[in-house]
Amino acid sequence: MRLKRFESTASTMLATALIVIAVSNFASPASLNAQTSSSQDQLPNANQQPDSSGYTLTGQDMVDKAFLRRTILRGNLAIKLGQMATERSSNDSVKKIAAMSVRDHTHLNDALTSLAKAMHVDLVGPTRSQTEILDRLEKLSGTEFDNEYIKVVLGFQKDSDESFHREASYAANVDLKTIATHAAPILHAHRLRIEQWAGSVNVAEK
Fold first, then answer.
1. Quick one: pLDDT band at residue 42, thresholds 50, 70, 90?
2. What are residue 171's phi and psi, to 5 degrees?
3. CA 169/CA 180 separation, integer angstroms
4. CATH of the domain at 169
5. Three-point CA angle 191, 192, 193, nearest 5°
6. From its phi and psi, is residue 51 left (phi > 0), alpha (psi between -120 and 50) or beta?
């Protein structure tokens, strides 16, 4: 019962935080004007280049855009794999991991996609490596599928945990920084929970 309350509360916290941020911050005239004004006031240097909108990007701006692209495309893959795991696996721990992964990445992608579009981020995908992961898992079943799926999710969760903490500290975009700050501690807690479940089926991270 305590575990179920944790899962429900943590997922609700992540969803609520991201919904509030999405409503209050995403593509708001004030935030976009502030970013535009800031970009226009800065003189270009060797670490800056214009994006497709014509605004000048700093090095951290490009890091932010790369983070958004990677996170959203990875999220799309995580959702597909989670749905696949829910259908194919008969292991309770794998099903719990799949459910949490789908919830987390659905909430994150819902929150980040509007911001990515406002920042002119290229969201065409999946990448070649993501396609290879999907193709590989589609050919597996039973324990082989469970083990490979958990390894992939552990890698996703580790990267999400670390990258969101970095963006919370260094993001140049105010809206992205706010999202990362709210999401980072929840994603860390979910990473620990997923690692615990993975341990119950004796699967270690790649």
1. very low
2. -55, 135
3. 9
4. 1.20.1260.10
5. 90
6. beta
